Amino acid sequence: MPQLSDTPRRPTYPLAHATRLKPRRWPLVLRFYKGAIHNLIILPVTLHSLFTALIVYLDRHVTGNLGLPASIVPSLSIVVGLMLVFRNQTSYDRFWTGRNCAQQCATCVRNLARSFLVSATGKEQWDEDSGGLSEKEKADTEKVIKVLIAILYAIKHNLRAEYNIPPTSFSPDENGIHTFRSEYDALLPPDLVGFEDQGLGLPLQLSVIVEGYIRRGFNRGWFHGPQASQLTVQLNTLVDAYGKMETIRSTPIPVAHLIHQKQVLALFTGVLPFATVDDFGWWAVPIVGLVAFTLYGIEGIGVQLEDPFGYDKNDIKMDGIVEDTRREVMVMVEEWKLAVEGGGTQPGRGGMFE
């Protein structure tokens, strides 16, 4: 069976946006951009290398006695290693938890959309002879499905501290004039009034609309009691997953730990030139630079993973997750509309809502 990276790429295959779109052309060892953290560490590595060069020059040409015993290095390296391991484990746990919660939100939207569309057939469960959906019921169902997708967009933007209803960006129209547009304004009810200026997040506000649809579906006979309860559980799970991502976003690593880690790194790489100057001479400059590159690089990875919901290359692909879910759900909506409006499926084509 061919690997995913060997198959032809199409714009509409499942998970097209959340997965890597093309195979890597260069070995990762040769990459210095697009995901690398060199821009975060170039300054401290350069400064420590220059400081080492100064120490070597003073030791060789001025004082001649700046060297320290090499045995001091293992004592400090143990502390530095423990701190970096703790930092990276904590940061990656935040990244992994955030990714799982993002997928949980998408899964809940899939489950709710599937249940809503299958149940909204226009036939009450105890009366197979009842009529089809009214226009109001069709519009209500399509509206709530769009609201489900909008919840994912709202979650993504709230985690990036991009508020307003909906978040807008400059985009040129057909005349080349830049106007404010949104990526999901068409999914929101046209009469929606936001309360973000009063402290109410848009994801929670939209979840109230979904909860109201579940209640209406129960009253219409589309959902029986246990099913309506299970749908509410799915909605609660979605809100709970969003709350966990909010916790990650709003709870950074304690500043006391960050301060001490920076100081310990600076102390270790500052002492290292004195411990290597006698044995390595000018070779101490690249050696210290390499050690600083390694240690500050590990620390830089922790910085990148600490808040995984932004736009960095190493962040969670929130845009791709949301877009893939939107495409999946909207395909189901189109098939559902064919079933309830067209009286079935197209010739020679099986439908999922028969």
Automatic annotation (TrEMBL):
Organism: Delitschia confertaspora ATCC 74209
Keyword tags: Ion transport, Membrane, Transmembrane, Transmembrane helix, Transport
Spans traversing the lipid bilayer: 40-58, 64-86
Cellular location(s): Membrane
GO CC, any one term: membrane
Name of the protein described by the UniProt record: Uncharacterized protein
Lineage: Eukaryota, Fungi, Dikarya, Ascomycota, Pezizomycotina
InterPro entries linked: YneE/VCCN1/2-like
Membrane topology: Multi-pass membrane protein
PANTHER family registered for this protein in UniProt: PTHR33281:SF16, UPF0187 PROTEIN YNEE (PTHR33281)
One GO MF term: chloride channel activity
Coiled coil: none
